Amino acid sequence: MQPRTAILFLLALAAVACLWAGCVKSADPAAENNHPNRPVADSRPEETPGLPTTDDELAAEAEGIIARRACRGCHRPDDGSDTASAANLAPPLARIAERRPGDWLRRFLRYPYTIRPHQPERMPRLGLDDREVEVLARYLEWLARERISLLPAVGPAREAKPRHPRLLNARRLLVKYNCMNCHSLGKHQIRIQRDEQGNVVFQHGALQAPDLTKVWQRVRPQWLVAMIQHPPDWMPWSRMPELNVTEQDVQDLAWYLLNAEPSPATRVTAPDVEALLKDRCAGCHNVDDPARGLDLSSSSGMRRGVLDDCGGRYPAVVPFAENSPLLGRLARGDADHTLRAEDMARLREWILAGAPGLAD
Ligand code: HEC
Ligand code: HEC
Ligand code: HEC
Question: Judging by beta carbons within 10 Å of its beta carbon (0-12, 13-18, 19+), is residue 250 exposed, middle or buried?
Answer without folding.
Answer: buried
